[in-house]
Amino acid sequence: MKKLTIFLFLFSLFISTPALAGKEIIGEWVLNDKFAGRNILIYKEDGQIYIFRKFHNGGTRGTYKLIKATNYLGETIYKIPNSYMEDHYLITKKNMLQIRDKLGLIDVAQPVK
């Protein structure tokens, strides 16, 4: 039974992740917080940049378009368009993904190895 459960869990991750054919992967990270652990994938397709979030409990937040921009320090960020709190993502030099808004750092996701 345990093997079947593991297989079904892995299969559910596979079928609910966006197909990667034709996509340029910018990065993939994992965030293991106590409320909603998730994998975060940022990719480029047809000239547009997207984020896909898959929660470890099986839920998703879907795919959203991002806008590549530069912050006041000259760092490349990926912004969520029309976000009241100016939500954005910053990939650090150590390949960590900082989740930020206009008030500052919210969380840091680790790169998937």
Secondary-structure element series:
HEEEEEEEE
The whole-angstrom Rg is 15 Å
What percentage of residues falls in helices of 4 or more residues? 10-25%
Cα separation of the termini: 29 Å
Brief digest:
With 113 residues, the protein is mainly beta. The protein has one domain. It contains one helix and eight strands.
In terms of topology, how is this protein built?
Elements lengths: L1 H15 L7 E8 L6 E8 L2 E8 L4 E11 L5 E4 L8 E4 L5 E5 L2 E8 L2
Antiparallel strand pairs: 1-2, 1-8, 2-3, 3-4, 4-5, 5-6, 6-7, 7-8
Can you give a write-up of this model?
- With 113 residues, the chain is mainly β.
- The protein has an eight-stranded antiparallel beta barrel with strand order 1-2-3-4-5-6-7-8.
- A hairpin with a 4-residue loop joins strand 3 (48-55) and strand 4 (60-70).
- 9% of the residues are buried.
- The radius of gyration is 15 Å and the shape is globular.
- The model is unreliable at 2-16 (pLDDT under 50).
- It has one helix at 2-16; strands at residues 24-31, 38-45, 48-55, 60-70, 76-79, 88-91, 97-101, 104-111.
- The chain contains one helix and eight strands.
- The protein has one domain (2-111).
Fill in the keyword field for this structure:
1 helix, disordered N terminus, mainly beta
